[in-house]
Amino acid sequence: MTSQKVIPARNWGQRAAAALLIALVALLLFMVGTSRHISWSAIPQYIFDETILDGIRLTILFTVLSMIISIIAGAILAMLRLSPNPILAGFASLYIWFFRGTPLLVQIIFWFNIQLFIPSIDVGAIHIDMNVIITAFVAALLALSLNEAAYMAEIMRGGLMAVDNGQNEAAKALGYTPTQAMLRIIFPQALRVIIPPIGNQTISMLKTTSLVSVVAAQDLLTRAQNIYARNFLIIELLIVASIWYLVMTTIASAIQFVIEQRLGKSTNQASGLLQSALRLMRAEGRNG
């Protein structure tokens, strides 16, 4: 019996769409590259400009601090949301509803202008002017952190609920307290579900920090705006900022990939050890 070679059908529609897409992208690149209104020689001059580098440092600082604060606050809110106490669960639900339902840009402007209705804090002889406390940096950090905490809470709640309840029962059978079970068994396994969206939120935060330019918080975009306000190289400075945003998000994506790979291996090992210990205890119970 002779074997017949299977020839896949040619999809001419997909090939035509791919060719059209390549042609459109090439045309766009040609139009941008040959534009006389863009001073390409100015872009390398500002890539490593000290002002731009200062903006990059502040952007990274905003991202790191806001993610740390939001992860801690999100973990607390997730616990409150899962609490059997209706008041605690209701507070967490109300917080998440409010901060996810209002635009981040509005929240940034709100915190920056909070002194309009709370001009100062007076406790006895202590008088603190809100203008001294709520600077542009603090207002931006508060808005970014509190807004992101609402999303972190839902991410963590989903991760905790994704762990099979049998893991908690197995931890109790091994003599773990509820706190030990959460920290050593449940939470490490939930990380497999939590880490990818946290990584995505971190990458998104690198770009979201550009919104703080509305209050002149001196991030990367604000520094670029300050420069092109003087030399009118608007597109050139925006390209410089975009290049750096791409560099930062690419590095963050690579770090996320490495963490996910290592976390997956360690979590699988921990889960396997737990199951092995539980099976051993059951076997000893039957033998006894």
Keywords:
288 residues; mainly alpha; 11 helices; two-stranded antiparallel ribbon
What does this structure look like?
It is a single chain. This protein is mostly helical and 288 residues long. It has helices spanning 12-33, 42-47, 50-81, 86-101, 104-112, 130-133, 136-162, 165-173, 178-208, 220-231, 234-287; strands at residues 120-123, 126-129. It has a two-stranded antiparallel ribbon. The radius of gyration is 26 Å and the shape is flat. It starts with 11 loop residues before the first helix and ends with a helix.
Uncertain stretches: none
Helix/strand structural class: mainly alpha
Task: Output the helix-strand order.
Answer: HHHHHEEHHHHHH
**Main β sheet profile:** 2 strands, antiparallel
- Tally of DSSP helical segments: 11
Rg, alpha carbons: 26 Å
* Overall geometry: flat
Strand order of the largest sheet: 1-2
Query: What fraction strand?
Result: under 5%
Beta strands, count? 2
Helix content estimate: over 70%
- Compute the separation of the termini in Å: 63 Å
Average residue pLDDT: 86
